[in-house]
TrEMBL record:
Gene3D superfamilies on file: 1.20.120.1190, P-loop containing nucleotide triphosphate hydrolases (3.40.50.300)
Entries under CDD domains matching the protein: NOG
Species of origin: Helianthus annuus
Annotated spans, Disordered: 522-714
Annotated keywords: Coiled coil, GTP-binding, Nucleotide-binding, Nucleus, Ribosome biogenesis
Gene Ontology molecular functions: GTP binding; GTPase activity; RNA binding
Gene Ontology CC terms, in alphabetical order: nucleolus
Protein's name in the database: Putative nucleolar GTP-binding protein 1
Comp. bias intervals (Acidic residues): 526-538
Subcellular location, record wording: Nucleus, Nucleolus
Length: 714
């Protein structure tokens, strides 16, 4: 049987496939021959777990919204046009259809609410009691009962009014019966408005409940408030439970998941429990009691031996004995936490006796009711969540105890007998007395020896740990500088010197440039000395006067040149239409051209022809004065065409400056351009940046009521 128990542990690791042939597995020196299809069937029967997902419950509308939804749907999906000229049977069918359709909608909506909310008698007792603790199952059942009663009343109302509509003798009578039927249905729905609002609040609260699987491998953490339960679950799982130095920080159940031997374990953090009568416990404490009572889990009872939680060891021991009936038939481990503040050996003798009593009670839970405890079982462990000492040992011990207990329970069940005949455990025997040690090649041993001899290179992480850790150690970037002397690396570099930024003067050729500047400065000084050597006293008064005049004119020229240089390029050209002072006239241009020795007549004539508008009746007279030579013909053609826009050359003609090599390339470019805009023009796009997506089926044109005979939905 021990071999079969080990087989059960092995098959927890892999997922069997029903299509594979029988295989041989090796586990702890045992050969197991089994049929994977049989194992798959076996585990399917044993691990038929039920998942509860309260987040999928549909939102419950209020009474007013309920009426609006149903009546709007009736108006949209049933015919709306009827005339008194129709046959009476047609009128009756018209209104009977409306009453039946409304009743069907109410029935579907109310049935959905009743079916989606869980029935407390059908779900797992853990969830049944948890919902009772949170919401009071009497109120919950009463609200669902009112919904069911309203559904039956609406069905009865529709049935009665359909009978009356069969005997309606006029359009008015049928319409009045329809209005009365729909009104009574809406009245019934509005009366259950408080129940609908109550159920919607419960739905919102149930959606926030943790997703706990009552049948999976579970580790349950319990104890007094502020003893380190939430810190422990944060250490061994990825849960993020709030941890604060005051009691009742955790006010509901929190779930985390951890792995041990390739198996997923569910860890539940419960709120703190106080040692007081059952009737005096509040809702927060009752959540913990419910989890302890109904979940098959390994229980970790946390004990704060330092007393920093505000409760003594005697108070915690009294709580343990008051709830020890909830620990029966469950693996129990007593965890002494906060050993960094107080070790287990340092507590008083009275407290040690209390701890030993709890340990003896925990040993009894190993075998359930009666019997002797097993040797070597770990029921009392110490740890510190602050220093993480012993945290992994507590987790491993709890997972191992839970796994052994689950396997033993399955081995004692009646279902195991159907599968035992499909397992065969073969124990291999030695064939001779020879020892066959592991063979490791010599090259591998030498390579390992070389790796051990090598000095491990110090990384930045190692330096960080040696110098105080993160936040204290600051990595130096100067140690990678390439300098002539390594002692210069840690020197302080000035950023500002004598009011100047040092970085602006850093140049690899700075010494060479300094020498060039010094040479240039020496030459300039020599020139100045030569000019100063010229003796003004040797000149006559007339020469001195002329020299002063020359220097004055030279300074004036330099000043004017600087003014022109600074403003001429940026000075705007004034258009003729802004020349209000008439300074830029043709007469002025003529005088300037004449002063230069040029004939201004043609230029003035050209300016006047541009400024004057050309009239049709003037063109004939103008043609009479034009000579017949070729140059005059070109001038006439140009002057005649100035009144209209200039014609563009043909596409095939090559115009200088367009950037084409020849006319063939130009034609090809024009064709490619036309082809590129064909799709855009076809889609009626304004340009390349037009990204508008047109609404081909506007809502206001393609939605509404369906006509008679249409049964397909949109």
């Amino acid at each position: 049987m021990k071999g079969v128990a080990s087989v059960l542990k092995v098959f927890k690791v892999f997922q069997p496939c029903t299509q594979l042939p029988p295989v041989v597995l090796i586990h702890s020196q045992h050969l197991i021959y089994c049929n994977l299809s049989a194992v798959s069937e076996f585990w399917h029967k044993l691990s038929n777990m039920v998942q509860y997902n309260f987040k999928k419950i549909t939102k419950v509308p209020t009474g007013k919204d309920f009426v609006d939804i149903v009546l709007s749907r009736t108006q949209r999906q049933t015919p709306t046009v009827v005339h008194k000229g129709y046959a009476i049977n047609r009128i009756r069918q018209f209104y009977m259809r409306k009453v039946k359709f409304t009743q069907t909608n109410f029935h579907e909506k109310l049935s959905t609410i009743i079916e989606e909310f869980p029935r407390l008698d059908d779900i797992h007792p853990f969830y049944g009691d948890l919902l009772h603790v949170l919401y009071n199952k009497d109120h919950y059942k009463l609200a669902l009962g009112q919904i069911n009663t309203a559904r039956n009343l609406i069905s009865k109302i529709a049935k009665d009014y359909v009978k009356l509509l069969k005997y309606g003798d006029s359009l008015y009578r049928c319409k009045a019966l329809k209005v009365a039927a729909l009104g009574r249905m809406c009245t019934v729905t509005k009366r259950i408005g408080p129940s609908l609002a109550y159920l919607d609040q419960i739905r919102q609260h149930m959606a926030r409940l943790p997703s706990i699987d009552p049948n999976t491998r579970t580790i349950l953490i319990c104890g007094y408030p502020n003893v380190g339960k939430s810190s422990f679950i944060n250490k061994i799982t990825r849960a993020d439970v709030d941890v604060q130095p005051y009691a009742f920080t955790t006010k509901s159940l929190f779930v985390g998941h951890t792995d041990y031997k390739y198996l997923r374990y569910q860890v539940i953090d419960t709120p703190g429990i106080l040692d007081r009568p059952f009737e005096d416990r509040n809702i927060i404490e009752m959540c913990s009691i419910t989890a302890l009572a109904h979940l098959r889990a390994a229980v970790l009872f946390f004990l704060d031996i330092s007393g920093s939680c505000g409760y003594t060891i005697s108070q915690q021991s009294a709580l343990f004995h008051s709830i020890k009936s909830l620990f029966m038939n469950k693996p129990l481990i007593i965890v002494c936490n906060k050993t960094d503040l107080q070790s287990l050996e340092g507590i008083s003798e009275d407290d040690k006796k209390l701890v030993e009593e709890m340990k003896s009670e925990a040993m009894k839970t190993l075998i359930g009711q009666g019997g002797e405890p097993r040797e070597g079982a770990e029921v009392l462990l110490t740890m510190s969540t602050l220093t993480e000492q012993g945290v992994i040992a507590v987790k491993n011990a709890a997972c191992e105890r839970l796994l052994d207990q689950r396997v033993e329970v399955k081995m004692k069940s009646k279902k195991i007998n159907d599968c035992l005949n499909r397992f065969h455990v073969a124990v291999p025997k030695p064939r001779d007395q020879k020892e066959r040690p592991a063979c490791i090649p010599q090259a591998v041993l030498e390579a390992k020896a070389k790796e051990a001899e090598k000095e491990k290179k110090k990384l930045e992480r190692d330096l960080e740990e040696e110098n105080g850790g993160a936040g204290v150690y600051s990595a130096s970037l100067k140690k990678h500088y390439l300098l002539a002397n390594d002692e210069w690396k840690e020197d302080n570099m000035p950023e500002i010197l004598d009011g100047h930024n040092v970085y602006d003067f850093v140049d690899p050729d700075i010494l060479q440039r300094l020498e060039e500047l010094e040479k240039e400065e020496g030459l300039l000084q020599e020139q100045d000395d030569d000019e100063e050597e010229m003796d003004v006293e040797d000149l006559t008064p007339q020469q001195q006067k002329e020299l002063a005049e020359i220097r004055r004119k030279k300074s004036i020229l330099i000043r004017e040149h600087r003014i022109k240089k600074s403003t001429a390029e940026s000075r705007p050209i004034v258009p003729r239409k802004f020349d209000k002072d008439k300074r830029f006239t043709s007469e002025r241009m003529g005088r300037q051209l004449s002063s230069l020795g040029l004939d201004p007549s043609k230029a003035i004539e050209r300016v006047r022809s541009k400024s004057r508008g050309r009239k049709r009746e003037r063109s004939a007279d103008h043609d009479m004065d034009v000579d017949d030579d070729g140059s005059n013909k070109k001038m006439r053609a140009r002057s005649l065409s100035r009144s209209r826009s200039r014609s563009r050359p043909p596409t095939s003609e090559l115009v200088p400056g367009e950037g084409f090599k020849d006319s063939a390339q130009k034609i090809k470019a024009f064709k490619m351009g036309k082809k590129s805009v064909q799709k855009r023009n076809k889609d009626a796009r304004k340009g390349e940046g037009d990204r508008v997506i047109p609404n081909l089926k506007p809502k206001h044109l393609y939605s509404g009521k369906r006509s008679n005979g249409k049964t397909t939905r949109r």
